Amino acid sequence: MVAITAVTVVALIGVFVWVYNRRKKAKFDKDVMEVELKALRAQMNPHFISNALHSINKYVMENDRTNASGYLAKFASLMRLILENSREKEVPLEQDLHALELYMQLELLRFSNSFSYQIEVDPQIDVENTLVPPMLLQPFAENAILHGLSNKGKGIIKIQVRKSNDMICCVIEDNGNGMLDGALSMPADGKAHKSLGKR
Amino acid sequence: MIQERLSIINRLKKAKATVNILQLRDAQDRPGGVRVELFLPVELAF
Questions:
Q1: Residues A146 and A111: beta-carbon distance below 8 Å
Q2: A182 vs B16, B23, B37: nearest CB
Q3: ipTM
Q4: Is residue A190 predicted with pLDDT exceeding 50?
Q5: Residue A94: how many CB atoms within 10 A of its CB?
Q6: Rounded to the nearest 5°, which phi and psi values hold at A168?
Q7: Could you tell me the maximum CA-CA distance found in chain B, to the nearest angstrom?
Q8: Is A171 in contact with A131 (CB distance < 8 Å)?
Q9: A187 and B4: CB-CB below 8 Å?
Q10: How close is the nearest chain B Cα to the Cα of A78, in Å?
Q11: A17-21, A47-51, A164-168: which range is least confident on average?
């Protein structure tokens, strides 16, 4: 009887220790992933910052105080938003779109209005209370501007945010020359496959 | 970097955030732009 009790107690302690260690490891893994995410969010495009400063410098050199001041004000607002957003795991969609809008305005000034853009948001989406990971759209918008500028006419960039079942679908489309090597679809699991779309 | 972020978000939230990049073509099958579709899980603040 004593032996059975002792074995049961040892087994229970063993299970407890196993569960405890497993939970500890899960928490550690989660903490590591959150730190990685934070580091990635903090790496906001250094070349964008450099480009923006060059543009401001250009206006200063040309003594164009109005544009220099306007550009600097927008740049400061965007930097503040980026710094705020980089500390958060998720931000309201409205705030992320505001940062994107500021970014597009800055690029529009930088490229002397050689492209146009529109941002459309499905009115069914509650932009104040819908949370999204910050600054995910900006790199795609940056690519779209570069692609759009390769168009012989005026570049057009369309950004749409709509609901798609239980997801939010953000579409960024340009009218440039596209990718030379054909289309590529890259799901988040890292497996790429080719895909085509018709205009 | 986006791929890496989405991958971590998916693991943390057990979500299925994906990004599709499509080459658009005109009627003559010439490249006519790029369309990026980013699917993110919906999270509400309340």
A1: no
A2: B23
A3: 0.88
A4: no
A5: 15
A6: -110, 130
A7: 49
A8: no
A9: no
A10: 20
A11: A47-51
